[in-house]
Write a structure and sequence with these properties.
The chain is mostly helical. The protein is about 45% helix and about 10% strand. The longest helix has 30 residues. The structure holds protoporphyrin IX containing FE.
Length: about 325
């Protein structure tokens, strides 16, 4: 979708047509998320910034070089195909589309090569780490509260039955699964501080003066745990969303997992579809158990620090098929 699979290989022995292994890309993205979330002393006390006391700026520059090498390789490859296809060129992924825009001299805002690389990076970062993290957090929470798995399985049996997998047009008939996803996003928003916003002009928001040039950070993690908006906020209770119309696309300010307004996440539709179908099918297709030596209350829901939040301790689970064997 963003760029072809061929750019990532499974292992170093198989780098034909690719430039990076999947593990290396994952490592780069993990570092990218971590560095985007760190508190760099130089940003808060600018006269100290030249010292780069924590070494973050150096790490960012090194990371930039590694990503840039990857972006250049992908762009050159796409460009070569575009040139060799001439008039018959048909865009096959997002990079093709961006390159086509970059060639258009009539665009109001010209897309430079750097802009294209920036957009590729946005899509790569926004589209890869987010949805799996939500599924991961959901499993941490529901393994801690096994009655939720039973309730979800009951809904799946009733609506889908045991003779098929869950499909996209089933989503609207699975309100409990939807409530589980909302509850995970309330307690574990993937972007706990969203993405830093920048005030382009002086403005007043709910009585607060925000001067032009201010970096605005919105703490959705804390809003999701605020007693003013939620009963028993520290508890994982999907039921709180049943029979209530609480939107998660930016209309209800107590739940803002995708942000709100013009800079809201543009990938929310795709992201939610991935989460819904992955989670619903994992719950439908398998029974989930903790290892013998572990009790539900032992499951750790502490967070690892970064621009996105991940569970601090990975969870080990034992699965067995739940559906007739011919479906696997
Ligand atoms: C369920 C999964 C996802 C969640 C929870 C999520 C969450 C977010 C959040 C919180 C923001 C910042 C919004 C703000 O600051 O107001 C954001 C921005 C963004 N997301 Fe997502 N996202 C998800 C999936 C995706 C996918 C699948 C893509 C692309 C394929 C994507 C691409 C982006 C981009 C490009 C931005 C930057 C938008 C801008 O600055 O205008 N996201 N996302």
């Amino acid at each position: 979708m963003v760029l072809g699979n061929k750019y990532f290989s499974e292992s170093k022995c198989d780098l034909e047509g690719s430039i990076i292994t999947l593990d290396e890309l994952q490592e780069l993205l993990d570092q990218w998320f971590l560095l985007n979330g760190v508190i760099n002393i130089g940003d808060w006390i600018p006269w100290l910034s030249f010292l780069d006391m924590q070494g973050y700026v150096k790490q960012m520059k090194d990371l930039y070089k590694k990503f840039d090498r990857f972006h250049e390789y992908v762009l050159d490859d796409h460009k070569a195909k575009m040139v060799s296809s001439g008039e018959d060129f048909v865009p096959k992924d997002m990079v093709d589309v961006l390159l086509q825009f970059a060639e258009d001299p009539n665009l109001e805002v010209q897309l430079t090569r750097d802009c294209v690389k920036g957009l590729m990076q946005d899509l790569l970062a926004g589209g890869t780490d987010t949805s799996p993290t939500i599924v991961e957090w959901t499993f941490h929470e529901i393994m801690k509260n096994p009655h939720i798995i039973e309730k979800a399985a009951e809904e799946l049996d009733r609506v889908i039955g045991r003779e098929r997998w869950v499909e996209e047009n089933d989503f609207s008939k699975l309100p409990y699964i939807e409530a589980i996803i909302k509850e995970t996003l309330r307690l574990h928003p993937v972007g706990p501080l969203l993405v830093p916003h920048f005030a382009t002009e002086d403005c007043n928001v709910s009585g607060y003066n925000v001067s032009k040039g201010t970096t605005v950070i919105i703490n959705v993690w804390s809003i999701g745990r605020n007693h003013k908006y939620w009963d028993a906020p520290e508890e994982y209770l999907p039921e709180r969303f049943l029979d209530k119309k609480i939107d998660m696309l930016g209309q209800n300010f107590a739940l803002l997992p995708f942000g709100s307004g013009r800079r809201r996440c543009p990938g929310y539709n795709l992201g939610l579809k991935i989460v819904r179908s992955t989670l619903a099918n994992l719950l439908h297709g398998f029974n989930w158990k903790l290892p013998k030596n572990m009790k539900p209350e032992d499951v750790c829901v502490e967070e690892h620090y970064g621009l996105t939040t991940h569970p601090k301790v990975p969870l080990e689970m034992i699965i067995e098929p739940r559906l007739p064997i011919h479906l696997y």
